[in-house]
Amino acid sequence: MLHTTIILLVIALLSLVAKDLVLVYASLLLLGLSLLKAVPVMDAIQKPIFHVGLFCLMVFLLIPIAKGKYDFISLGKEMVSWKATIAILAGFIISYVGGKGLSILPDQPVVFIGVTIGTLLAVLLTNGLPAGLIIAAGCIALLSRIFNF
């Protein structure tokens, strides 16, 4: 229990330094649930919360379309460009890699901690965006399969 508390506090503090308030709040919420020994609650929310997060991301990304920023004809013309082709390919590859990352994260906490620290450092040092945890874990999963580590 003490180890869990320390780990979650360290993640929250590093996230605060990196100004990643989403991770700060998530760490503190889970710290509270952990201190309350609310394991059944954590088990119950783990899978659905991921889908809620994806839903929120999709809403964010679809808002420009809903606001009328794109019309069907101009979007159709854009979809036959090289940029669209590369974007479709990149989306496919990243989704595949992300799927591998999602499968490795719950079973290998060292991967999660490593990519979290790397992400926080990138946010802090380069003004990066904390959006690559699952993709980074997917890269680790694929590399570990290739190099057997």
Outline of the structure:
The chain is mostly helical and 149 residues long. It has seven helices and no strands. Helix content is 82%, strand content 0%.
Describe this structure in words.
The protein is mainly alpha-helical and 149 residues long. Helices cover 82% and strands 0% of the residues. The protein is built from seven helices and no strands. The chain has helices at residues 2-17, 21-35, 39-66, 72-78, 82-104, 109-126, 133-147. Helix 1 (2-17) runs parallel beside helix 6.
Number of strands: 0
Radius of gyration (CA) equals: 18 Å
| Pattern of helices and strands | HHHHHHH
Mass-distribution shape: globular
Mean pLDDT: 89
Fraction of residues in helix:
over 70%
What percentage of the residues does DSSP assign to strands (E)? under 5%
Q: How widely separated are the two ends?
A: 29 Å
* Largest β-sheet summary: none
Please describe the structure with a list of short key phrases separated by commas or semicolons:
single chain; 149 residues; mainly alpha; 0% strand; globular
